[in-house]
Write a sequence for this structure.
């Protein structure tokens, strides 16, 4: 009995233990479940917080990105504006440069084959495209006295070796052997036409110069001048390289009014054959008083007014007159100059010559040096002892000849 009781007791105790264990297990599971649930909630909260943080970070990142985009947009706009401003500035500069070119132009060594017929725009000589040009070259002496220097080889050497693009044919009118005195008219006209053709072959422009001097007033031989220029303009009607100088150096008190009236009769006969020819008109006092022409210019936009200087005689006063007239709108052409005194002789003044040529280049004024001959005087480029008519060597040149040749060679050749 006691054994049965002990067995029952053990069973009850075991069952209690099991129940306790089950309870504890259940409690453990519940606590575990609660722990899991709490962990899940915590995870969810953490996830929410993390998501919110991430969203916040994204918002911040997006805001920063938007800011950067805005900044970049601002920078781009600024760059675009800067580029636009720069382009506008370039265009303004180009326009200003073009305007300057229209007024006085960029330097260019003109050739008939490339630049065609010339004309006058404002104060400037321009080519067929309106590009400003400058002519520079050599004048013959009187062709009645030094005809042999009008030859193809000589003119070609001036062009190719010296870099000249202008040849002036000086035909005296009233002196011994002059066109209007006892000169051989047909021979003189033949020399002129030959010289024009030589210049054409050498790709040079050429001036046909009615070289008045001792006749003082061009009206003295006006009828002869009208007949001569009518014939020459007809002969050269198809030439784009010819300029006409209708009175070299009026002097002896000849007034501008007298010169102007002469020009108004001679110019129309040239225009009848060559409407757009450039015509050069002399001015009073050996073509120095260009201010008189500036005060009362011809009613013709395709003429230029000549100024002549000799550097040994003419200094700042005449240079200042030239600059003032050009600045006031007068188109000027220096169709004759020398490095010596006004007599064509005496000592050369290269310092004064340099000042003159610097002034001419500043305003791109065309110029022509006196003279292609071997006369025994300072202004001739060859020694009197030289007999060469072309293929000249240093031994052929006198002081002024070497100087002007080297000056031409040193000028821009573009």
């Amino acid at each position: 009995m006691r054994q049965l009781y002990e067995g029952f007791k053990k069973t009850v105790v075991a069952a209690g233990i099991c129940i306790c264990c089950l309870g504890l297990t259940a409690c453990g599971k519940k606590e575990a479940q609660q722990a899991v649930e709490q962990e899940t909630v915590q995870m969810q909260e953490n996830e929410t917080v993390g998501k919110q943080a991430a969203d916040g970070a994204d918002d911040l990142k997006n805001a920063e990105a938007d800011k950067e985009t805005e900044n970049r947009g601002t920078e781009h706009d600024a760059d675009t504006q800067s580029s636009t401003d720069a382009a506008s500035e370039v265009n303004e500069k180009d326009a200003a440069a073009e305007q300057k070119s229209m007024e006085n132009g960029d330097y260019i060594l003109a050739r008939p084959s490339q630049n065609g017929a010339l004309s006058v725009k404002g104060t400037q000589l321009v080519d067929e495209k309106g590009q400003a040009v400058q002519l520079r070259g050599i004048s013959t002496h009187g062709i009645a006295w030094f005809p042999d220097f009008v030859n193809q080889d000589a003119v070609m050497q001036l062009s190719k070796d010296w870099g000249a693009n202008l040849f002036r044919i000086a035909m005296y009118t009233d002196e011994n052997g002059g066109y209007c005195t006892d000169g051989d008219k047909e021979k003189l006209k033949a020399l002129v036409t030959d010289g024009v053709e030589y210049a054409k072959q050498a790709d040079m422009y050429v001036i046909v110069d009615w070289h008045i001097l001792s006749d003082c007033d061009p009206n003295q031989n006006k009828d002869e001048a009208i007949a001569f220029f009518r014939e020459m303009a007809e002969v050269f009607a198809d030439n784009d390289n010819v300029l006409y100088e209708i009175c070299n150096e009026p002097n002896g008190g000849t007034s501008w009014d007298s010169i102007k009236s002469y020009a108004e009769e001679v110019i129309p006969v040239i225009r009848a054959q060559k409407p757009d020819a450039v015509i050069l008109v002399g001015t009073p006092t050996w073509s120095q008083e260009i201010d008189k022409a500036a005060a009362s210019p011809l009613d013709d936009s395709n003429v230029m007014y000549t100024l002549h200087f000799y550097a040994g005689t003419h200094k700042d006063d005449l240079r200042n007159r030239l600059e003032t007239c050009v600045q006031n709108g007068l188109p000027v052409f220096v169709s004759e100059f020398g490095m010596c005194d006004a007599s064509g002789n005496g000592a050369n003044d290269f310092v004064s010559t340099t000042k003159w040529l610097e002034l001419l280049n500043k305003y791109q004024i065309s110029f022509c040096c006196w003279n292609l001959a071997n006369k025994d005087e300072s202004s001739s480029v060859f020694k009197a002892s030289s007999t060469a008519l072309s293929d000249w060597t240093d031994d052929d040149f006198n002081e002024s000849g070497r100087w002007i040749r080297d000056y031409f060679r040193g000028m821009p050749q573009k």
In short: Confidence is low (pLDDT under 50) at residues 1-84, 86-91, 93-106. The CA atoms of residues 121 and 327 lie 14 Å apart. The beta strands are 119-121, 124-126, 136-140, 166-172, 205-211, 242-245, 279-281, 303-310, 332-338, 367-372.
